[in-house]
Structures are given as C-alpha cells and as structure tokens.
Amino acid sequence: MEKFNYYDKIAKIYDQTRWLTPSIAEEVVDEIVVLVKATPVTTFLEPGVGTGLNVLPLVKRGYCVTGIDASQEMLAQFRQKLHSIPPNLKLIHADASRLPFSDNSFDVILTVHMLHTVSNWRKFLDEVERVLKPSGFYLNAQWLTPPARKEFEDYFRVILSEYEPLKHSKRVNQTLNNINVDKYLQSKKYRSNYLIAKEWTVTNTVEELLSFFKLRAYGLCWQVPEAIFYSALKDFEEFCCDHYGSLKTELSSTAKFEIWTYSTS
C-alpha cells in the first residue's frame, strides 16, 4: 500500500465533488440486479469500494456486500452513512488490488474506474477470476465524466502545464490506453456485454466547479506543489471569468454509468 493516499485527504468531500448521486446510484443498482439475475443470497464484492456510493443501495436492500479499500478515511465515510454496520456488509481496509479471499467466494465482482490504480491489471483480473464463482459475473464499470466538466478540467490542465508538465496525467493516460480487459478475458473464454446502465444530466455553476478545485478534490490537483497549484488556480479563475462570462454560468451535460459484463455462463 502506498504511504500517501490522496483519497484519505479528500474522503470527507469525495461524494459532494463527484457527479454520481444516491438517487442515480439506486437506479444503477436496479439495472445491476436485473443484469446479474440477483437472488436474496447473491454475494457482491467491490474492490476499491471507497465511500460506498456504488454499493450502498445493495446493502440497504439486504444483499451480502463486501468492500475493500486502501483508504481508511474513505471507509470511515462509508460507515458514517449507516447507523451501524449491518450483518450483510463487511468492510476491509487493505490493498484492493490484492484479494484476501478464498477461491469461488463471490457471485458478482464490481470494479468502478479502478483498474488503472493496480500495479498489474492482468494479475488483478486473475485474482478476480479466482475469487469469482464459476457462474458469476464480473462487472467492470465507470462513470463517464460529463463533457462540460471534462472541458472545464482540460482548460485547467492547459494552465497547469504552463507551470510544469503534468507527468502523472500522462502516466495515467498511458496506463488506461494499455488496459484491454476485453481481449484478456475473452482469451480466458469469458463472454462480454456492454451497456449504459444510466444517463443523467449534471449541472454545476462555474463557481461550484472552481470550489471543488480549490478543495483539491481530484488527483489532478495533487500533482503539483501547493504554491504552483494556487498560482495556477488564480490564473484559471481569471480565465473562467473571461471565457464563461460569469462565475454564475451553469454548465450542463450528460453523465453516463457504463458497464462491461463478463461471464462464462
């Protein structure tokens, strides 16, 4: 486990600075339950469970859920959403890229935009295969960033790059480009299916998005020294006033929750 985990730093503001809301998560889970033909005894695992945004609806519906995460603070936020930890939920503080479970332990394994964080994604998928039951489902999912927010972030990246190269971003992009889950799992005789579980509109003012950056809520914001970051942020706020006309301007666009489903049955 890395000594520095920026998720520990942002755990308390994680949910408010993302675009998946509890109500949308409920609708996504509606789709997942149908997709995996869940029964009352279906077991779920989410490596990289974080604050539980993706699986809390499953817990509330009584399904047996296990979550594992490297950030103790993120898990603490998950626990705070519940009056007490119910018997159908198990939370483990550990490296989510290493699965401390016996073979054939779970009916469904869900990962949400986390494969790029593991040191060896092929070995991780081998572990997923090991702990997944033979008739189980592996769901590899992500929330697609709303285009307006993506454009906003890209403008900030340009300004940051004027201070120093964004080496970390390049590494992440290279990692994402090198991950081919479809090809790897199909070589293991898994069948795949793709669907968009939910589309919804996300609206924020420019001022709100700037406030998220000021909180250093994203990995992008931890790439540069503090002095440089806040100088760049001042330049960015001036850019936003000019480009968008007002900090009160609303930016709206469509977010998507997409899922690749893998199974052998």
Automatic annotation (TrEMBL):
Q: State the species of origin.
A: Gloeothece citriformis (strain PCC 7424)
Q: Which GO terms describe its biological process?
A: methylation
Q: Name one GO molecular function term.
A: S-adenosylmethionine-dependent methyltransferase activity
Question: Per its UniProt record, what PANTHER family does this chain match?
Answer: 2-METHOXY-6-POLYPRENYL-1,4-BENZOQUINOL METHYLASE, MITOCHONDRIAL (PTHR43591:SF24), METHYLTRANSFERASE (PTHR43591)
Q: Which residues form the Methyltransferase type domain?
A: 45-138
Give the UniProt keywords, A-Z. Answer: Methyltransferase, Plasmid, Transferase
Q: Return the protein name.
A: Methyltransferase type 11
Entry keyword annotation includes Methyltransferase: yes
> Which Pfam family, just one, is annotated for this protein?
Methyltransf_11
